[in-house]
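The data layer described in this paper is built around a simple, fixed record for each protein. Because each token names a local backbone shape, the row as a whole describes the fold. We quote a single record here, exactly as it is kept in our systems:

***
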Amino acid sequence: MSPQNSTPRYTVPGLSTREGGRMIELLTMRLHSLNDLALTLKHIHWNVTGPHFIAVHEMLDPQTLAVRDMADATAERISALGGVPRGTAGTLVAERTWDDYSVDRADAIAHLGALDLVYTGIIEDHRKAAAKAGSVDPVTEDLLIEHLRSLEQFQWFVRAHLENSSGALITADAGSETQAAAASGPSRTAPAKKTAGTKRATKKTVSAKRAR
């Protein structure tokens, strides 16, 4: 289900209400994605196991707090544009275009393999949203670029655990979170050969993407 596309009664100076509505629609999906990411990070925080438990467990809390702040800034921008930020679980589930995170209790590095795909999808769609906002509203574009700086840094922290001795990602052949977890877990038998990142699986498409 796509987000409600309603033109606000008023918006920020310099934008038409139609342009404000476009930004509200764009930011609504970014809000859903960030809220979902914060929940996913906490889920992983609670369910990591193995010798890397404490390092990963403690690494994820600052990321969770930062992502929650991003969601808050996104919601407040929607309000400033004249929209209504909807942060309820029901709205998130109804409007998102991806499935729930698919790994439960597992080795910490296996979780990081799956989380890498989550970050890839979010970052790619944040970049697309920033590009769309740039031609309409540079303030919204700036907000998304600010988020990207932190999101890409967080993915770097995750990927530092996933490089093999040749510098390639051990999850590079994975096409889903469960595959990435299997490639990263303690039972893996060989490193992946490809170096291109992959995205998480979604409800609506074979290639994994976060909502746009």
